[in-house]
Amino acid sequence: MFGVLFPNRSFPMDISTFSQIDTLHWILDMNTFVGEAYDQIREICIFLLNGFTLPPEKALALYIQSPGSPFLFCGAVSLSRPSAVLSLPWPEPGAGAGALAVPESVPISAKIGVSVEDLSSLPSLDVTAQKRIERLAMKVGENLFNFMQSFCSVDGSRLVVPMDILDRWFKKFQERAKRDPEYLKGFVL
Question: Residue ranges of the Hikeshi-like C-terminal domain (predicted)?
Answer without folding.
Answer: 133-185
